[in-house]
Amino acid sequence: MAVCEVCSNEYDMSFEVHAQGAVHVFDSLECMAQRMAPVCENCSCRILGHGVQSDGRFFCCAHCARVQGHAQLVDHA
To answer: Which residue of 30, 43, 56, 76 sits 20 to 30 Å from the alpha carbon of 64, by its own alpha carbon?
Structure first.
């Protein structure tokens, strides 16, 4: 059994995520999101969808990007 790298739970149904040359082991999607999902630079929520980027900065939505001075970004409808 593998051990989750976030919560240290030993779990027989854990899974691996291969990203940027590294292998990560998790017991749940919540732990995976906690470790791997980017954080919005305005509201600090985890970005689980597409989000938006500007000048190498990550935001959960265009509103948060605009608050931080990136007026050119818009949400898709």
So the answer is: 30
Tell me how far apart the alpha carbons of residues 55 and 22 are, in angstroms, rounded to a whole number.
Answer: 25
CB atoms within 10 A of CB 4: 19
Q: Record the tokens describing residue 12, joined without a space.
A: 């027989």
Please give the model's pTM, rounded to 2 decimal places. 0.79
* Residues listed for the chain: 77
Residue 51 gets the label, from left (phi > 0), alpha (psi -120 to 50) or beta, of left
Residue 18 is which amino acid? H
- H or E segment at 58? strand 57-59
Contacts of 31 (CB under 8 A, 6+ apart): 4, 5, 6, 7
